[in-house]
Amino acid sequence: MSAVSSGRYSRQNFILLLLIILQLDLHTVEGVWPLPQDFTRSTERYPLNPQAFHFGYGKQSVVQQGCSVLDAAFKRYFSLIFPDYTSDNLSVSEKKAFLNAETVWGAVKGLETFSQLVYQDDFGSYFVNKTVMEDFPRFQFRGILLDTSRHYLPVQTILKTLDAMAYNKFNVFHWHIVDDPSFPYQSRTFPSLSSKGAFHPMTHIYTQSDVRRVISYARLRGIRVLPEFDSPGHTDSWGKGQSDLLTPCFRRGTPSGSFGPVNPALPSTYQFMARLFKEVSSVFPDSYIHLGGDEVDFSCWKSNPYVRTFMHKMGFGVDFKKLQAFYMENIMNITSALNKTSIVWQDVFDYHERRSSLSVVEVWRQGCYLCEVRKVAKAGIRVILASPWYLDQPGPTRNWAHYYTVWPLAFKGTEEQKKLVIGGEVCMWGEYVDATNLTPRLWPRASAAAERLWSDEKQTSSLDKAFPRLQDFRCKLVRRGIQAEPLYIGHCKHEYQDV
């Protein structure tokens, strides 16, 4: 095996050559999900013996034993490939399969592909077909958003989702960690944010240790953790632990007792944000951070005489979009000084006059979302598409086709503009989702988005061809302990057991 580490946003190219010289004769697997870019499988089928099967590093590999990512992946995938066999013997053996990858992360994806090619007969013997493939992701950003504010998700639930993401080759966990209902992130700099803003100050929080555990678990699976601290709206819970942060609302010239978005008129606001994001950037090592910026209700700002006076002083008149742009510009400057690249929701792009300051825009609104993608790309800004993949609302599993038949680049634009679409994201908002129903609501519908973001569009345009592969893959998820909903009538050879 040859692997070279590179940046987390690298292309993750890998070539998987499976040339296995053994023998076999039984049924085969339906295929691999998501579909590789180039995939040739022979009818030659060979047995695999767990006692004689080993993973190892090639002599020419840049990395060798001691690479934490691959050492852990070897152990993990041995257990996934041979679920009925336990052994810690993973030493180098005589070469029977070759996986050549440009990056460590590509090698991890290659191991996932190989694991899906192995199957069992009715007597428990393992087999694989002779296979040659070349593979790489179509888009570099393939994310899943989990909302842990509207309902708290236990750490174990998040880890199980990361496992399923790895099986689907998603590579970004977008952690929408705080919002209006609760502030479960435990800040060392501002401990009152969670002690007063979480649903419960001890049981419904994410400690620094919890966050490190999630980041480490994700990293070993080739998944980045992208934190989101959304403001100036969606911040009700912040105000419980930080006085003078939110804007006091007025009614008939006097304070009403209610509060609105973050107060953009106070210097103390930006001092607080600078200290908070300094901590956040050290806790979350990824070079990107999501700053939100969506759905800001201007009514409270409009009612506050001090905010209106500030706007007049700044020359904003009565244009509250300019006030929000001013606020977001300050927050982006804070995170930029911390060497973080910011991602914002499309609302920020829509009202921002100085769009050159924006780095990445996430398109989320319904309607003609490709029209918005086109506008952002035309402005020379990178785009993440989320609009067609809102999975939090319940729906029949058969509507997986709705999430599969999405064409992210089907807009009028130049090739250079289309290259600015860096990927997409499945969003699982938490109004009606907690640990009891997260997994079946997410899978296998999110798998449809996974293939759209990974595979060649022309090779994956047929629902009829995709269905049997997805049905087979759903059964693989079930055997691996993921409670993926059934697609239709049928059965899995290995039905779900609580593991």
From TrEMBL:
SUPFAM superfamilies associated with the record: (Trans)glycosidases (SSF51445), beta-N-acetylhexosaminidase-like domain (SSF55545)
GO MF term list: beta-N-acetylhexosaminidase activity
UniProt entry keywords in alphabetical sequence: Glycoprotein, Glycosidase, Hydrolase, Signal, Zymogen
One Pfam family of this chain: Glyco_hydro_20
Record GO cellular component, one term: lysosome
Active site: E295 (proton donor)
UniProt EC number: 3.2.1.52
Signal peptide (UniProt feature, chain positions): 1-31
InterPro entries associated with the record: Beta_hexosaminidase_sua/sub, GH, Glyco_hydro_20_cat, Hex-like_dom2
Annotated CDD domains: GH20_HexA_HexB-like
Catalysis: reaction(s): beta-D-GalNAc-(1->4)-alpha-L-IdoA-(1->3)-beta-D-GalNAc-4-sulfate-(1->4)-alpha-L-IdoA-(1->3)-D-GalNAc-4-sulfate + H2O = alpha-L-IdoA-(1->3)-beta-D-GalNAc-4-sulfate-(1->4)-alpha-L-IdoA-(1->3)-D-GalNAc-4-sulfate + N-acetyl-D-galactosamine; N-acetyl-beta-D-6-sulfogalactosaminyl-(1->4)-alpha-L-iduronyl-(1->3)-N-acetyl-D-6-sulfogalactosamine + H2O = alpha-L-iduronyl-(1->3)-N-acetyl-D-6-sulfogalactosamine + N-acetyl-D-6-sulfogalactosamine; a ganglioside GM2 (d18:1(4E)) + H2O = a ganglioside GM3 (d18:1(4E)) + N-acetyl-beta-D-galactosamine; a ganglioside GM2 + H2O = a ganglioside GM3 + N-acetyl-beta-D-galactosamine
Glycoside hydrolase family 20 catalytic domain residues: 139-456
Gene3D superfamilies per the UniProt record, alphabetical: Chitobiase/beta-hexosaminidase domain 2-like, Glycosidases
GO BP terms in the entry: carbohydrate metabolic process; ganglioside catabolic process; glycosaminoglycan metabolic process
Domain of life: Eukaryota
Subunit structure: There are 3 beta-hexosaminidase isozymes: isozyme A (hexosaminidase A) is a heterodimer composed of one subunit alpha and one subunit beta (chain A and B); isozyme B (hexosaminidase B) is a homodimer of two beta subunits (two chains A and B); isozyme S (hexosaminidase S) is a homodimer of two alpha subunits. The composition of the dimer (isozyme A versus isozyme S) has a significant effect on the substrate specificity of the alpha subunit active site.
Task of the protein: Hydrolyzes the non-reducing end N-acetyl-D-hexosamine and/or sulfated N-acetyl-D-hexosamine of glycoconjugates, such as the oligosaccharide moieties from proteins and neutral glycolipids, or from certain mucopolysaccharides. The isozyme S is as active as the isozyme A on the anionic bis-sulfated glycans, the chondroitin-6-sulfate trisaccharide (C6S-3), and the dermatan sulfate pentasaccharide, and the sulfated glycosphingolipid SM2. The isozyme B does not hydrolyze each of these substrates, however hydrolyzes efficiently neutral oligosaccharide.
Similarity remark: Belongs to the glycosyl hydrolase 20 family.
Protein name: Beta-hexosaminidase
Species assigned in the record: Seriola lalandi dorsalis
